Amino acid sequence: MTDTSAFVHRFVPASASGLPPLLLLHGTGGDENDLMPLGQAVLPGAALLSPRGKVLEGGMPRFFRRLAEGVFDHEDVVRRTHELADFVAAAREAYGTTAPVALGFSNGANIAAAMLHLRPEVLAGAILLRAMVPLPVPPEHDLAGKRVLMVSGAMDPIIPAANAAALARVLKAAGADVRHEVLPVGHGLVRQDLDLARAWLGA
Ligand code: MLT
Fold it and tell me: Which CATH number goes with the domain that contains 152?
């Protein structure tokens, strides 16, 4: 049985009521501290749960193994996604929260997308910043009513536009309520990501 010690993490309890908790998922080389300021800025007062990815690539934490940039070890994606979903379920129990909305960047957005495919019940919704297709053939799943915001960069050197569009399409086909914004930027986050996330969470 998984407990909250399964991942190094930070948890900040809510200081306002009625807000969904945010599950903060960092990019390659980040850690549990990385997205705290973003989480606080997009939904002030919400509880924040922020785990550190357990896979190390040259010392850099990630949420699953990759064989090269943009080429994923799909077996590891599946295994790590279940491991993270079990941790999120255990954290909900331990901290007494409702299902979180994932807020993931890059590798963190990719494992959030994999969670939507494999363990959708764990998430109330997801904000996927610079996400790509995590699994070539996701299992059949019903995402009816699940809200997803994807924000991609038209000049992202890591994620081809067609790949991001394919992820949006697969999520929509499964019934998710997907909004996909493409900004004229690269892989890094910009002010508009924050503004879009905040507006979407407030809608
Ligand atoms: C990934 O490995 O998940 C993506 O290539 C993005 C990255 O983390 O660099």
Answer: 3.40.50.1820
Gap from CA of 72 to ligand 1 centroid (Å): 9
The first and second tokens of residue 156, run together, are 């992202």
Mean pLDDT by groups of 10 residues along the chain of 203 residues: 90 97 98 98 98 98 96 97 98 97 98 98 98 92 95 98 97 97 98 98 93
Among 9, 50, 106, 152, the one annotated catalytic: 106
Within-domain flag for 1:
no
Q: List Cβ neighbours of 36 (8 Å cut-off, separation of 6 or more).
A: 10, 12, 24, 48, 50
| Number of structural domains the chain divides into | 1
Does this model's pTM top 0.85?
Answer: yes
94 alpha carbon – ligand 1 mean position (Å): 30
